[in-house]
Amino acid sequence: MAPVRASRGPWLVLGVVSTLAVTAIGYVHYDQQKQRTDMRRLIFEEKEREREEQARAGSQRAREGAPGAKDGPGRSL
């Protein structure tokens, strides 16, 4: 009697399923990293915008001579 040869079907299915699983996990990880990077960028841009607005408001106060403005006429020595 000839030796029984194992079929390749289950191994092929296992290979395809594991490849799809690894691909899905990699994509989820990539997507999470992308979202995290996007959030960091949004936070950075918002802080930058706030700094610019504060600088603009400070220079406006200095031009108007408001007390407490940097180098304005109302500045105490």
UniProtKB/TrEMBL annotation:
Transmembrane segments: 12-30
Residue segments, region Disordered: 45-77
Pfam families: PET117
Compositionally biased intervals (Basic and acidic residues): 45-55
Keywords: Membrane, Transmembrane, Transmembrane helix
InterPro entries per record: Pet117
Protein name: Uncharacterized protein
